[in-house]
Amino acid sequence: MNIFFRQMQNMFWEPKRDEKGRDKGEMAALNKVVDTTAFWYLFVSSCSLVTNLCIPIFSEGDKLIYEAYRPPGVTYFLALGTQAFTGFTHIFYGIFPFDMLFMILLSCTTLQFQLLNEEIRTLFAANLDNENAVADFRKKLKRCIGHYDFLLRYTKAINDEFSIPLAFSLVTMFGCHTVEMYRLAKAQSFAAALRSLLFVTVGVWMVFMKCFSIPAQRLTDEASMVGINIYFSPWHNHPKHSKPVIMIIARCQKLVKIIPCGLFELSLETGLAAIRAMVSYSMFLKTVDSMAGHKM
């Protein structure tokens, strides 16, 4: 992971600032997205953990969060505390850091594509009427091309590094939340419905959409704008410099995508299709269960 942050520190462009040296809003918007996502992630996850802990405590009998064998000599509250501690550490020291790290890397890379697009939109507006202007233009053009190539390599490195754990996480999440949606549909009490609802909210909305699908979609959209901005810029007014521009336009035909293990693309379309599939499978399970109950 250190290589990602070293490259971020050494190769990422700084957002432009106004005359007073203040940020124009790009970093503030990025920080707001990260802070808001982290806050709601932790808030809903904490509510889910507290609900899962309180339901067994206030239920009749020695019920645990998860059905498990309790060896002789292990008290009820020790077993309950062990399960609660396991869930807490699993989420806040395992899942949460991974999800937020992935979202932050994608969001920061998206910001870099945004800064590159802003530079490209003004690149060919320069008046090349003297040698100094031509030299400055060539320097900026070379800088843009180099940064675009770096961002392509950086995005590919993110995809390759996170590919296996991301695919495993998404497949596991699909199965778990399909079953949890089924349990929500079959809930016989408010406590059981609330428990399942919070679990689904954390997994589907906060993790699957806010941390994975939406940041990946924003990255793809912003990266695809590079070719569009170059094509609609007045580059044809400078035919001597058209060769590198045409090469960039040709390279932009291949979209920047996050595809874990080459199985599926992370995007809003894929995310919504997965949610529809979860609902469909959970309803199918409920129907099968109802039919089995009638036969008995």
From TrEMBL:
<dbReference type="InterPro" id="IPR004117">
    <property type="entry name" value="7tm6_olfct_rcpt"/>
</dbReference>
<feature type="transmembrane region" description="Helical">
    <location>
        <begin position="162"/>
        <end position="182"/>
    </location>
</feature>
<keyword id="KW-0812">Transmembrane</keyword>
<keyword id="KW-0552">Olfaction</keyword>
<dbReference type="Pfam" id="PF02949">
    <property type="entry name" value="7tm_6"/>
</dbReference>
<dbReference type="GO" id="GO:0007165">
    <property type="term" value="P:signal transduction"/>
</dbReference>
<feature type="transmembrane region" description="Helical">
    <location>
        <begin position="38"/>
        <end position="55"/>
    </location>
</feature>
<protein>
    <submittedName>
        <fullName>Uncharacterized protein</fullName>
    </submittedName>
</protein>
<feature type="transmembrane region" description="Helical">
    <location>
        <begin position="189"/>
        <end position="208"/>
    </location>
</feature>
<dbReference type="GO" id="GO:0004984">
    <property type="term" value="F:olfactory receptor activity"/>
</dbReference>
<keyword id="KW-0807">Transducer</keyword>
<keyword id="KW-1133">Transmembrane helix</keyword>
<keyword id="KW-0675">Receptor</keyword>
<keyword id="KW-0472">Membrane</keyword>
<dbReference type="GO" id="GO:0005886">
    <property type="term" value="C:plasma membrane"/>
</dbReference>
<feature type="transmembrane region" description="Helical">
    <location>
        <begin position="76"/>
        <end position="96"/>
    </location>
</feature>
<dbReference type="GO" id="GO:0005549">
    <property type="term" value="F:odorant binding"/>
</dbReference>
<keyword id="KW-1003">Cell membrane</keyword>
<keyword id="KW-0716">Sensory transduction</keyword>
